[in-house]
Amino acid sequence: MFMGSSQEKTAVAARSLVIWAEELCKKGSYAAAETLYQRALALAEKRLGPQDPVMAEVLESYAELLAKTNRSAEGATMRRRSELPSRKSDGTGRI
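Below the sequence we write its predicted structure tokens.
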């Protein structure tokens, strides 16, 4: 069992959803992947907040899906949200 703070557990859950969505994208299951990205985004927004580095990961990955599905305007909005200047790296090399 994972022991950690509620925020750490939420970050792990959001990242897991993103990884799962990325795998679905590789298989061309874009609709199913989008559902997972939406769940990850809702979870990160509610429990982690807009400044959390995990939020940037979710937004960036979701933006890639939107670009692949010819929704580049929506993807650009996600990318802008992922690039908030007040976000800082979490020390893992990921934003």
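Residues 6-82 form a domain with the Serine Threonine Protein Phosphatase 5, Tetratricopeptide repeat fold (CATH 1.25.40).
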